[in-house]
Amino acid sequence: MDSLKIKGGRPLKGEVEISGAKNAALPIMTAALLTGGTHTLCRIPNLRDIATMGRLLAHMGAEYRFENGTVTLETSRIGTREAPYDLVKTMRASVLVLGPLVARFGDAWVSLPGGCAIGARPINLHLMGLEKMGAKITLESGYVHAKANRLKGTRICFDMPTVTGTENLMMAACLAKGTTILENAAREPEIADLAQCLAAMGAKIQGAGGSIIEIQGVDSLKPIDRYAVTPDRIETGTFMAIAAVCGGDLLLKGCRPDHLDAVIAKMRDTGVDFHESKKGLRVVGPRRLVAKDIKTAPYPGFPTDMQAQFMAMMTVAKGTSIIKETIFENRYMHVAELQRMGADISIDGGNATVRGVDKLKGAPIMATDLRASASLVVAALCAKGESVIHRIYHLDRGYDHMDEKLRRIGAQVERISSS
Ligand code: EPZ
Q1: Around 43, how many Cα atoms within 13 Å sit in the side-chain half-sphere?
Q2: What is the pLDDT of residues 63-99, one digit of tens each?
Q3: Ligand 1, from 96, 125, 131, 163: best to mutate by most atoms within 8 Å of Cβ?
Q4: 382 catalytic, yes or no?
């Protein structure tokens, strides 16, 4: 298992090329199951999760190739409609094959994902929607078996916005008989990106990106033809946090600032400066941040995927910050590691109280989940001295060559390979 050795306290300045969004690429890869043929997807980030999804689709009979940011999938010969536990347990987004498989083939066997480091993460809302569309759902030895002759369009109202639940049912509805209305749908930009890709395949979708989405079922779809996924807003936000906490001056290229309104507004309040131009988004960190509170919420609120990175910023801000995580029940795994670096954080129920200290100190620390590992990178870059972040396979799941991007802006970062 690789580690990252980071020597903190260096001024960071330069350009960062933002990669395509992991959470857009994953559902769009599963959309290739909706019809046979050769699909080409562009601006796909080189990540562990993308490789895992490629392995899952290949397990089902697809031909998968990743080359310089382009994924090619040939899905005419899907033999097995099973997503096995050993793959699903490493990546919950595997559940996104469920909707497309039932829609195209009428059946699917998908391992229940089980919990993960940040919470129980059930998929009951995905299954509720498929049942309403006429699928017969049974649970057998940890697998969901979904079966339907042909899904029927209907009205589905989510108890709460679910990103992959909205994506699964939007894809299933594309080939259903009749019209489906999704209410209280998630509004994340990755959902609008998936809808745009599905529309290019011939789907009839209105309202994606809002809380009511209407899908008119069609009989067939065309393969994806060189669709370029939207930039990764969480990678963008992570580099904003890096500039913020290191007094850096970064130009983020190829990003979509309009996908980060809540994050930019909050960071401006802490003293970070933003300048948008044709070249990209320039982010300038202050000499010292001012502590501000956050409460995570579904899009367009402050994203839960930026909570850990913002907490790292607040550990060295002037004042005290109250952080409320409302989406996942256990998304504070980074706290213990930040405390090892001298952060003053206390947890009370769902809230974290962060009292800013003058300086963090480098230390050996452990990554526990994807965004927690990003938070440790932010902290290590501003800490005094050297940190070694262990188990950075968590980071590699969602950040494309993060160490190389950091070195290009002046960070002293070295990847230590366990082999
Ligand atoms: C997606 O996960 C993202 N993953 C997550 O990003 C992100 O943190 C999350 O949305 C919230 O924005 C992908 O897009 C691949 P949810 P998802 O369903 O879809 C509850 C990252 O770091 N819920 O929107 O699994 C659930 O427990 C990852 O890139 C149910 O109760 O999240 C949670 O409390 C981490 N029943 C809330 O809804 C369901 O059937 C939101 O979860 C589904 C969800």
Answers
A1: 16
A2: 999 999 999 999 999 999 999 999 999 999 999 999 9
A3: 163
A4: no
Q: What is the pLDDT of residues 227-239, one digit of tens each?
A: 999 999 999 999 9
Atom of ligand 1 nearest to the CA of 234: 29
Q: What's the pTM?
A: 0.98
Q: What residues does each domain of the chain span?
A: 3-19+231-416, 22-228
| Sign of the dihedral through C-alpha 5, 237, 355, 11 | positive
- How far, in Å, is the centroid of ligand 1 from the Cα of 164? 7
Distance 302 CA to ligand 1 centre (A): 14
pLDDT at 111: 95
Q: Which two tokens stand for residue 348?
A: 């009370």
Q: Among 116, 157, 197, 255, which one carries the catalytic annotation?
A: 116
Ligand 1 within 6 A of 94 CB? no
Atom of ligand 1 nearest to the CA of 328: 34
CA atoms of 350 and 297, how far apart (whole Å): 13
Instruction: Answer for the pair 397, 92: CB distance below 8 angstroms, yes or no.
Output: no
- In CATH terms, the superfamily for domain 22-228 is Enolpyruvate transferase domain (3.65.10.10)
Q: In the CATH scheme, what is the code of domain 3-19+231-416?
A: 3.65.10.10
Q: Which residues pair with 49 in a beta bridge?
A: none
